[in-house]
Amino acid sequence: MARDPRYDILFEPVRIGPVVSKNRFYQVPHCSGMGATWPQTLAAMRGVKAEGGWGVVCTEYCSIHPTSDDTPYPFCRLWDEDDVRDQALMTEAVHAHGALAGVELWHGGYHALNRFSREGHIGPSARPVHGYDPVQARAMDRTDIRNLRTWQSDAAKRAVRAGFDIVYVYAGHTYMPAQFLSPRFNDRSDEYGGSIENRARLLREMIEDTREAVGPNVAVAVRLMVDEFIGPEGILAEREGKEVLEMLGELPDLWDVQLGEYHVDARSSRFVKEAAQEPYVAFVKRYTTKPVVGVGRFTSPDTMVSQIKRGILDMIGAARPSIADPFLPSKIEQGRIDDIRECIGCNICVASNGTGTPIRCTQNPTMGEEWRRGWHPERIAPKHRDDTVLVVGAGPAGLEAARALGERGYQVHLAEASGELGGRVPREATLPGLSEWIRVRDWRQGQIARMTNVEIYRESALTADQVLEFGFPNVVIATGSTWRRDGVGRAHHRPIPGADGLRVYTPDDLFAGTPIEGPVLLFDDDHYYMGGVVAEALSARGLAVTLVTTAGTVSAWTSASLEQSYIQAQLIEKGVDIVVNHSLIRIGTEKMTLACAFTGRERTLPARSAMLVTARIAEDELYRALAADPGRLSAAGIVSLRRIGDCSSPGTIAAAVHAGHRYAREFGEASVDEPGFRLEHLRHEERQQFG
Ligand SMILES: Cc1cc2nc3c(=O)[nH]c(=O)nc-3n(C[C@H](O)[C@H](O)[C@H](O)COP(=O)(O)O)c2cc1C
Ligand code: SF4
């Protein structure tokens, strides 16, 4: 298919100082959870982005010196020549597909906890470090500032040796130069504090130093947090944002602008939609003739075109859209708009980094698997021989298994008990803020609709006898899971007394439309999004809701997906009562008994209904019935039987999609030894150094 001429503008080349991007698609710096720890894994992932058509592909935050150490999070590093060699793997992979490689040189200031390097902490003024580590940063003196500038210059020279085309000064996300800019962090009285000219001095010097270090053939970019999003105490777009651009607008070769810390900048779709940063960054182009990159979870080519045509941005910055679909630019270029796998804004990708592990994605199961398993987002091995698979259950695991098996050319029969595909996805997408999650179902359903080798049977709940009767040689069970009704979970290993009562519900009852009487006590011992979002849904029905959690905060795990503070604020705003650090220990008809998680001290709360969000039970009866009798299986001609996704071990939608994809990838292949992927090891010659 040909490109729609409406999108031609997206494919215009853009000059960035001495280098030229082939188009306007710019993969802004984003963590991979790989960093310096897994350089080959990282290089392969970035290479796939370049192959997918991004004009510029950047690293994640890349430390310039051991005083900026983010261990245990796997950040990138340019501390020495070995780091140069590791980074060169990435630039080579990116250059191989005609893209430019950018490196985001990083000094974290207060954000650098230096747990591994054990270096002292530095920042513009004396302050405790970010988080709760019991250490403080000293106010940098002139020697510290001189050292910082030297580290930036030295790292910039290493970046050039590693082959980068664009080298950043990173004044985003409240890192070092942004800390100097921000009134809340900077109370200096010397030439680096006070007026905006003084607070911007370090940024100016770092841009000039970097320019000198990289020489004439490499571009210098600045990532600037134009608004800190905390009000007048911090950087404001109409104050520091505008003033910095007025003063320094022409100094770098490119401005990459963003809002606030990560939880503001990469807000989940539950709280903001596409292009949400526009009102805050629209002014930037008035103050510079240099190309401006901005972000906003852009997945729609029409929105992208509109950003360019209305003079908001010159280049379309993307982190999450490039993770969910590394081939987004190519698909627009080839006129394959319906094939774009749009990001759902769930922030599982961010959570990977936040848990110190290689990045994964709900929509794109190949993310993070490019090197270690050799998975490619757009290519999958064709079948080696004719074979047929019965997939039972069309939730995220079954649907992805059917889609990927279909793409390989296998004959697939997909049986779904209900009338709708997607399993938990369409149900959960009805919850407040989660409507974009339906993209998990819609993309797969759309792809399957074009396949002639995938048959779908709706309203087809199958029994073991029926599966045996069909006699399809390969059967994969993906029948999902249901929420437990007995309260067993992390806090309780036995049913909660009273859980067999009349007005005890789970999220499945909410999905089924069961009438629920208030006041409701919601007990969350799951700690991901479900407890918080169900509380919100019940409150939206006008019910009085008290959310009780064994954790210290609501939806505690969502701090990894950067949502926790928003969820708790939203529930408070909606009038949901919150009781933390308590367990529900007895369910009565009109009153519930709680126990303090620390002392065990009991208290009661009046409530007519209990909503239990504790754990799920795999819906695996069909699997167990079939697996129980291998003789009957082989008599029926069934040669393989597997269970995948929530029906095997309930988890995230991302885990279910990955399980379905993995099943399809490995189906019919020579058996893979555990763990089924390559590990990165020290190179042999390095090992010898240690005898
Ligand atoms: C997984 C992930 C990791 C990120 N890591 C970085 C980083 O290392 N450096 C940085 O400047 N921004 C980082 N960001 C922020 C993104 O660059 C971007 O500004 C933000 O996600 C908004 O863009 P998007 O809506 O296209 O995702 C990260 C974002 C994500 C999703
Ligand atoms: S994990 Fe979720 S938010 Fe991140 S890129 Fe994938 S779909 Fe988007």
Task: Explain the overall architecture.
With 691 residues, the chain is of the alpha/beta class. The chain contains 24 helices and 29 strands. The protein has an eight-stranded parallel β-barrel with strand order 3-4-6-10-11-12-13-14, surrounded by six helices. Strands 17-16-15-18-29 form a five-stranded parallel sheet, with helices on both faces. A five-stranded parallel sheet has the order 20-27-21-22-23. The mean pLDDT is 96. Iron/sulfur cluster is lined by residues 320, 323-324, 343-349, 361-363.
Shape: globular
Helix content: 25-40%
Q: Which ligands appear in the coordinates? A: flavin mononucleotide, iron/sulfur cluster
Strand residues, percent: 15-25%
Number of strands: 29
Structural class: alpha/beta
Kindly report the spatial arrangement of strands forming the biggest sheet: 3-4-6-10-11-12-13-14
Which SSEs are present, and which pair or pack?
Blueprint: E1 14-16, E2 19-21, E3 25-27, H1 39-51, E4 56-63, E5 76-77, H2 81-95, E6 100-106, E7 121-123, E8 127-128, E9 136-139, H3 142-162, E10 166-171, H4 176-181, H5 196-199, H6 201-214, E11 219-227, H7 237-248, E12 254-259, H8 262-265, H9 278-281, E13 292-294, H10 301-309, E14 315-318, H11 320-324, H12 328-333, H13 348-354, E15 388-392, H14 396-408, E16 411-415, H15 424-428, H16 439-449, E17 454-457, H17 464-470, E18 474-477, E19 481-483, E20 504-505, H18 507-512, E21 520-524, H19 529-540, E22 545-549, H20 564-573, E23 577-579, E24 582-587, E25 591-596, E26 602-606, E27 609-613, E28 616-618, H21 621-627, H22 630-635, E29 640-643, H23 653-666, H24 684-689
Parallel strand pairs: 3-4, 3-14, 4-5, 4-6, 6-10, 7-9, 10-11, 11-12, 12-13, 13-14, 15-16, 15-18, 16-17, 18-29, 20-27, 21-22, 21-27, 22-23
Antiparallel strand pairs: 1-2, 8-9, 19-28, 24-25, 25-26
Bound molecules: flavin mononucleotide and iron/sulfur cluster.
Iron/sulfur cluster is lined by residues 320, 323-324, 343-349, 361-363.
